[in-house]
Amino acid sequence: MGTMRNWTIAAIGAALLTGCATAPPPKVAVAAPAKPAASELPYQWTTGAAPQAYKDLIAGFGRNGLKPGEYLWAGEIPAAGETRVVIDRLIQTAYVYRGDKLVGAASVSPAKQGHITPLGYWSILEKRPFYRSKKYDNAAMPWMQRIDEYGIALHGGGTPGYPESHGCIHLPMKFAEKLYGLTKVGSKVVIEG
Predict the structure, then answer these.
(1) Where are the alpha helices (DSSP H) in 62-144?
(2) Residue of 38, 81, 87, 192 with fewest CB within 10 Å of its CB?
(3) CB–CB of 167/108 below 8 Å?
């Protein structure tokens, strides 16, 4: 019995000493974390339209992002097909399609803290080339396209690279004008983010 006890103590001691190596542990190569793909971003709500639009931006325009106030517009717009707009609140970008072709993209400015740019499916309910806000000090809303009953609209405005609106989606002025000419009352808008 004493031999068995001594053997057990020796085995436990050897196991403990094995964990006390004085040599440094071997180096293991660790890859740097990859930048998350648009589909991996922390969306509150998405149907996949915004991540797909981002991929279409890369494929169609060879760009992976836009600077504040920047927009892109295709040289040729298909004559046929419905116009639809995809807004990505998370990366502050608007995409416009004619049929299945991405024809434009722009940086946008959604609602600042304390205000809401609503997520979901919308349609353009009203269009006016120039309008003034009834809620916010008669503020100018050029190329206004209203999407809800409370006054949320797409329109020309500041796009400083951060959320600054009271809920509307501010677009670069020239992009807002081009978009206005391509849409109609009833055109679909999806806001994800």
Answers:
(1) none
(2) 81
(3) no
In 3D, which of 123, 149, 148, 118 has the Cα closest to residue 44? 118
pLDDT digits (tens, 9 = 90+) for 125-149: 999 999 999 888 889 999 999 999 9
Contact yes or no for 141/102 (Cβ under 8 A): no
Distance CA 73, CA 26 (A): 53
What is the rounded CA–CA span in Å between residue 67 and residue 20?
54
Which are the contacts of 188, defined by CB distance < 8 A and separation ≥ 6?
82, 84, 85, 121, 122, 123
Residue 61 CB partners (closer than 8 Å, separation 6+) = 72, 102, 105
Q: What is the pTM of this model?
A: 0.79
First to last CA, the chain: 71
Radius of gyration of the chain (CA): 27
